[in-house]
């Protein structure tokens, strides 16, 4: 990767998964070759993105235009610290999930594996393209491609339930993006004459502060992938997909593209100073606060493990949205860091859920009593991921919650600080009992686990990596922290 310019790295990082998707289809009848293409591409993309991160940390901001759509609007790519942070998380976890997916798809005897890996590659390409978008038009285009490319993954099983979930998925995500987000983009274009991302935003001095809240709401609710209530039901519906899809796309790529888009709009379209001075987010913060608490309460009622994790994700996404809406330096740092910290923790939980399904064929928490004693690695990892989600030391999730809390203190938002504290208590209530039951409860009468052992080694490798990362990120969060600070301060 040495000697490549930033522009070349961006192009390769986006194009390589697209080329890989074609090669995967061509190699469909040779599973080993198909999976080798997936892994080699994932390794190369991760190395490319890490190389680019080094250039960005050194102060470089590579950018280029692909072509002009209409006068003044280009398909444009540009790397700034927030996009770099998101791309780093997505590329690393794509590699880890690819390793995990091989064990899961084979161990669970999934059908249509070639289609799965090909769609997966297209999805990661569109995610990276969104991360590197240089203007709101390009981000919107990549956002929509990501929605369409993940539809085959959501409906992978081909059952009536999967098809119904796919309709909910497309209906909400396309409905919100076309009905609200596209309208917001057109209004922004008419007001400013540009859609380029700019430090400090492009709306200050051009939009009457009295109307800022309306435009901001169109963006926030138009980004359905952020799962703000009442536009959240697509996410639990999408849990019908195979666990590797739930793990990466619905704990990292899809949902994080949503909250990433809201952060981009906050920092580079509105500008944090304009949001705080105009009060644009003052009423929207309560939608985020309600989503945090209500989705946590719903999570407590779910016996299906993936359903509980889905509602947990909805809650955690609203941490990021809340940090964006408060729009001060500390809250933006916390929101940006939570993209990374939540990603590593939540993907660990989904990995564990998939391992339990493959090894023990169990989906419901009530059926997992005593299972931890025969699957100790899986449930130990689940416990680590849970503690990071809760925000306890020594786990990385503590740092993002810490800076979010500092943002509430900085703005004297005591009610919102209380919401964050209550949410952490609810995290304990719906996550830790799973591990306690698995390790200490007696199996149900007549249930014997003699035939159950840990999941395939490739799945355990992935689970081990992400759970270890949750600990490492407590002691060494600098790569993500530095990018988060640069994004929040406009460096």
Automatic annotation (TrEMBL):
Q: Where in this chain does the record put each NADH:quinone oxidoreductase/Mrp antiporter transmembrane domain?
A: 133-425
Question: Mainly resides where?
Answer: membrane
* Ranges where the NADH-Ubiquinone oxidoreductase (complex I) chain 5 N-terminal domain occurs: 73-117
In the bilayer, the protein is annotated as: Multi-pass membrane protein
* GO molecular function annotation: lyase activity
Keyword Cell membrane assigned to the entry: answer is yes
- What subcellular locations does the record give? Cell membrane; Membrane
- InterPro entries hit by this protein: CPA3_Na-H_Antiporter_D (IPR050586), ND/Mrp_TM (IPR001750), Proton_antipo_N (IPR001516)
GO CC terms for this protein? plasma membrane
* Keywords linked to the UniProt accession: Cell membrane, Lyase, Membrane, Transmembrane, Transmembrane helix
> Which stretches are transmembrane?
12-29, 36-56, 82-102, 114-132, 138-156, 168-190, 210-228, 248-271, 283-301, 313-333, 339-359, 371-394, 414-436, 457-476
Task: Give the UniProt family note.
Answer: Belongs to the CPA3 antiporters (TC 2.A.63) subunit D family.
Q: List the protein's name.
A: Formate hydrogenlyase subunit 3/Multisubunit Na+/H+ antiporter, MnhD subunit
């Amino acid at each position: 990767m040495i000697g490549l310019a930033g522009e070349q790295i961006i192009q390769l990082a986006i194009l390589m998964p697209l080329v890989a998707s074609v090669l995967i289809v061509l190699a469909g009848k040779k599973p080993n070759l198909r999976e080798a293409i997936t892994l080699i591409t994932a390794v190369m993309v991760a190395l490319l993105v890490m190389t680019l991160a080094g250039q960005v940390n050194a102060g470089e901001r590579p950018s280029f235009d692909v072509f002009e759509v209409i006068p003044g609007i280009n398909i444009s790519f540009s790397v700034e610290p927030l996009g770099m942070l998101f791309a780093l998380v997505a590329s690393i976890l794509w590699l880890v999930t690819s390793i995990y997916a091989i064990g899961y798809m084979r161990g669970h005897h999934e059908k249509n594996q070639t289609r799965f890996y090909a769609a997966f590659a297209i999805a990661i390409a569109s995610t990276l393209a969104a991360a590197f978008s240089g203007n709101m038009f390009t981000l919107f285009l990549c956002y929509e491609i990501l929605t369409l490319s993940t539809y085959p993954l959501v409906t992978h099983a081909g059952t009536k339930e999967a098809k119904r979930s796919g309709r909910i998925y497309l209906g909400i995500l396309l409905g919100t993006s076309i009905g609200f987000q596209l309208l917001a983009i057109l209004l922004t274009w008419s007001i400013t004459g540009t859609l380029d991302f700019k430090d400090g935003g492009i709306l200050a001095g051009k939009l009457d502060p009295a109307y800022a809240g309306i435009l901001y709401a169109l963006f926030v609710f138009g980004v359905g992938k952020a799962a703000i209530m009442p536009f959240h039901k697509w996410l639990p519906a999408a849990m019908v997909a195979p666990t590797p899809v739930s793990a990466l796309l619905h704990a990292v790529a899809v949902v994080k593209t949503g909250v990433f888009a809201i952060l981009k709009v906050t920092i580079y379209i509105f500008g944090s100073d304009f949001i705080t001075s105009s009060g644009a987010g003052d009423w929207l913060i309560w939608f985020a606060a309600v989503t945090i608490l209500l989705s946590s309460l719903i999570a407590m009622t779910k016996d299906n493990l993936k359903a509980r994790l889905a509602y947990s994700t909805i809650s955690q996404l609203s941490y990021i949205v809340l940090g964006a809406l408060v729009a001060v330096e500390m809250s933006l740092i916390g929101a940006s860091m939570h993209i990374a910290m939540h990603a590593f923790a939540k993907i660990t939980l989904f990995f564990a859920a998939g391992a339990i399904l493959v090894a023990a064929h169990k989906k419901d928490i009530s059926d997992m009593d005593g299972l931890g004693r025969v699957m100790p690695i899986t449930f130990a990892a689940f416990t680590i991921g849970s503690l990071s989600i809760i925000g306890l030391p020594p786990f990385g999730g503590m740092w993002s919650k810490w800076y979010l809390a500092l943002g509430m203190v900085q703005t004297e938002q005591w009610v919102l600080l209380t919401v964050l504290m209550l949410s952490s208590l609810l995290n304990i209530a719906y996550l830790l009992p799973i591990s306690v039951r698995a390790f200490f409860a007696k199996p149900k009468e007549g249930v014997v686990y003699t035939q159950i052992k840990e999941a395939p080694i490739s799945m355990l490798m992935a689970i081990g990596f992400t759970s270890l990362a949750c600990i490492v990120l407590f002691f060494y969060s600098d790569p993500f922290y530095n990018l988060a600070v640069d994004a929040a301060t406009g460096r």
